[in-house]
Write a structure and sequence with these properties.
Layout lengths: L15 E5 L3 E5 L12 E5 L9 E2 L9 E5 L3 E5 L11 E5 L9 E2 L9 E5 L3 E5 L12 E4 L20 E5 L3 E5 L2 E2 L5 E2 L2 E5 L9 E2 L9 E5 L3 E5 L2 E2 L2 E2 L2 E5 L9 E2 L18
Antiparallel strand pairs: 1-2, 2-3, 3-4, 5-6, 6-7, 7-8, 9-10, 10-11, 12-13, 13-16, 14-15, 16-17, 18-19, 19-22, 20-21, 22-23
Amino acid sequence: MASDVTGVGTARHNLEATRYSTDKVIFAFGRTGASATATATSNLVNNSGVVASDTSGVGTARYDLGAAGYGGDKGIFGFGLNSSGVRLSMTSLVSNSGVISADVSGVGTASTGLDAAEFGGDQAIFAFGTVSGGTAVDESYKVSNTGVMTSAITGVGTDRTQPSAAGYGGDKAIFAYGYNPPPTDALVSLKNLVSNTGVVAADVTGVGSVRYLGAAASYGGDKAIFAYGSGNSGLLNLSNLVSNTGVVAADVTGVGTARNQLASAGYSISA
């Protein structure tokens, strides 16, 4: 992991990112400062990692959503909160040229604090998060290779919010970490592997330090990395590599500025 590069677009947090085309990335949405003011801003990233200037007005302003690639060369953003703190049930598709389409509403239960990843080579899966009343859920939604989202599938691991997710192994996905709200009220150190047919496996515990509000991305064509977030003692600057068989390695510390509520995605190669 390289050192920090500053000044790449408007400062914001609680945004999301996904690859599009076969080798580029888009960051979009989020909120600015300490307020709950949502943005509808995006930044494209080319296949050498250069972040372009802001593009404004890309769908409903929102934050704390999920995003993943689908269809081999496109992306999808889904769910989130608007500036009024209302949970949303909508998606926005991203073309293979990085253009975000108009919102599609009414897609699943209005949710926030979830994450998403590619699986199966050309599909995506959203999972976990919170619904009305702040209740954490163990739901997942599959996205077809044409960007159509299925109805909710329940019973996919421990209820939690703010996990991170990425593709691994070329056609599978992994969700890890997160926060289980009261009455449990605890950060978790667990993972759920997702098969190449979108089946979410049972929890595997003890995969690095407990945390939430981190980010994850694919790298190397078939591996993944989890990094940053918040632990029981505050902001973290650690990472965990994931092998092409879904094994999460031990913590590596000191990898850039400690922070949370960020977003990440693979670029230059297919995720």
